[in-house]
Amino acid sequence: MWEAADQLRANSKLNANEYSMPVLGLIFLRHATNRFNAVQAEIEKGLPSRGGKKRPITKDDFKGKSAIFLPIEAQYDRILNLAENADIGKAINAAMKAIEDETKMLEGVLPKEYTSFEQDLLYNLVRIFDREELRTATGDVFGRIYEYFLNKFAMSGAQEGGEFFTPPSLVRTIVNMIEPDRGNVLDPACGSAGMFVQTGHFVENRGEDAAAKITFYGQEKSDTNTRLARMNLAVHGLEGIIRQGNTFYDRWEELQGECDFVMSNPPFNVDGVSPEKVKTDSRLFTEKKIPGIAAKTKAVSNANYLWIQYFYSYLNERGRAGFVMASSASDAGHGEKEIREELIATQAVDMIISIGTNFFYTKSLPCTLWFFDKGKPAERQDKVLMIDARNVYRVVTRKIRDFSEEQLQNITAIAWLYRGQQERYLGLVREYLNKTHQEAGTIEGALTQLEEPLAKLTQMLQTFNDSLGASLPLLKDLPEVEGLVAEDIANQNIETFRATLAELEAGIQEFTAARVGLIGELQVHLAWFATQAESLSTNEMQKECAARFVHFIPQLKTLQKHINEVHKVGTRAVELAEKKLEARKQDIWDGKEVKKQRDALDIVRDQAIFVIKSTLYMKAQVTWLQSRFPEAVFVDVAGLCKVVTRDEITQQDSSLTPGRYVGVTALDGEDEEDVEERLREIHLELASLNEEAVELAASIAANFEELGI
């Protein structure tokens, strides 16, 4: 979809800033229509009827339904089905205007430059976003598409180097930690409103209406980002006040001390702020106020600690804040250190999390997540939780990392234990155990699916093998190689094939034996587990359940090896028959049926490996938590987390860098999964380098063509 939409850049002679908003506008329109249709169907079911007729749906019916009301002329299908001679650009502009008229928050926000594009180009783009998969998409698929396009525009430099886009992993970590579920939520550098959207998901997942419980306030300095934020809120059925302004100078004074939650990803290391304009700013609550002034420019040398003071000052007496900050801020000296010491003295600094490299789409630098909590209970007033998550990540591409769903949950669970919320931690372990056993329960069926294609393929290979004596003359047409006569070559190939077939049969026997042994024991265990639902809420029972399952881990890994080996040898036997023994030339060889069974074997093999890996993966999450927190209470874990006191922080020169406190974990030997993951990383890196090489070659060729070379 991105490649198709990117034709605007190639064919319309527009730069990224000019074509990004129209593309995002069409995604907005498609997304809004999908949500409108889904909510409309839901509303219609509950409408009262009189005389067999239901009253028409009104705009008021959509309030609190996570969707905006769309007049008929603004619905995507209306534009898609325009007459061939209609002016589609004019129609899209009218649709955007109609939405603005119905939704106050979007007044003057939506793109209306579509008449600038060629008709055919717009028609193609409208069709791109009307594929069957998108019309029938459920859940927040379009939200993810919207995020993906924001990400791609950020990576291509469409919006000031990607300042408006915070990676979802970091947003979700912040939301999970501060749990914004009510009141005033502020982001004074809101970008595309990703923090607000994720907050909406968080509240909705609790079965509550985010629009009814939360008022969102956001500020952005650029008009483009302000518009994006309003569009993003509206398309998710959220309401808020998004205003344009430079947060350094445009103070939202009425919100000072009034916010229940503050969350943000401000621009790092800004160095051009005027000290004269901010010296009387009441949000700068520390004695130092301004961290330092550059001798050369006479401007604030680094604005990080301006932002940090803003976030603190906007909070009410029990407010929480979570924000992204440059890693260097945690140890910064001079005036920044003085401000940090005052912050620590407030006892509101609650948690600090170090994040590794490559989480941002446009920068590879690491960062830190800071968390304030003005309502900390007395027992935690003097403490700060340090988490070093630099070694926790999932590789997406060579340049991008993120957190898997489980990694995100595991980090959140550390905070739960720190806060004494043991029941939530136990609930997560119970969820992992349930998922482990749910996946394990599908293994038998997945293995059964292997039987038919494997048996049929083996039978066809054996039948071909039995006929090889009669087919030998066909093989004598082979040329001489290295002094061997054709018949010798043919006989060598036959021997290799027969040895491979024998290896396949032996592999099947080993696989069958391993499978029978595993399934029998696993069925007994699953039956026992099914009786433990009520007692699985205790740590002791969870540990017993996990310990019992450990027995199956080597068996599952062995079974996985057998499946892969049988698949590999079976594939090699087919290739030997067809390439070395010319099986396709013989009537006894049904090439079409062989391909059918080979393809079927590929599919069921992948399914079987998937369920085994999924089972092992979910059990690994249980192990990750239980091995670190065996008593289901918080303990310091070397290399990962530690609760430190203000005295300890003072002894470390007031540093808020987790790595200074948590130490280094002992290195374990790499197991098979570690090696496999590393190989995957290498593969991704190689694939990425190959793609870059192709793009570079194309760019060079285009440059040569322009130069007439």
Describe the structure.
The chain has 709 residues and is α/β, with parallel strands linked by helices. It contains 26 helices and 13 strands. A nine-stranded mixed beta sheet has the order 5-4-3-6-7-9-8-10-13. It is globular and about 95 Å long. The protein starts with a helix and ends with a helix.
Strand line-up in the sheet with most strands: 5-4-3-6-7-9-8-10-13
| Share in β-strands | 5-15%
Biggest sheet character: 9 strands, mixed
Q: Helix/strand-derived class?
A: alpha/beta
Helical coverage, percent range: 55-70%
Instruction: Using the alpha-carbon principal axes, give the shape.
Output: globular
Ends apart, CA distance between termini: 34 Å
Q: Any idea what the radius of gyration is?
A: 31 Å
Please give the count of helices. Answer: 26
Number of strands: 13
* Average residue pLDDT: 87
In the predicted model, the low-confidence regions spanning at least 5 consecutive residues are 158-162
What's the gist of this structure?
The protein has 709 residues and is α/β, with parallel strands linked by helices. Helices cover 55% and strands 10% of the residues.
What topology emerges from the helices and strands here?
Layout: H1 2-5, H2 7-12, H3 16-46, E1 49-50, E2 53-54, H4 76-80, H5 88-102, H6 119-128, H7 132-135, H8 141-155, H9 168-178, E3 183-187, H10 194-204, H11 210-213, E4 214-220, H12 223-235, E5 240-244, E6 259-264, H13 275-278, H14 304-314, E7 315-326, H15 334-345, E8 349-355, E9 367-373, E10 383-389, E11 394-395, E12 401-402, H16 405-418, H17 422-440, H18 443-466, H19 468-475, H20 486-530, H21 539-550, H22 552-580, H23 591-628, E13 641-645, H24 646-651, H25 659-662, H26 672-707
Parallel strand pairs: 3-4, 3-6, 4-5, 6-7, 8-10
Antiparallel strand pairs: 1-2, 7-9, 8-9, 10-13, 11-12
Helix pairs in contact: 3-8, 3-12, 9-10, 9-16, 16-17, 17-21, 17-23, 18-20, 18-22, 18-23, 20-22, 22-23
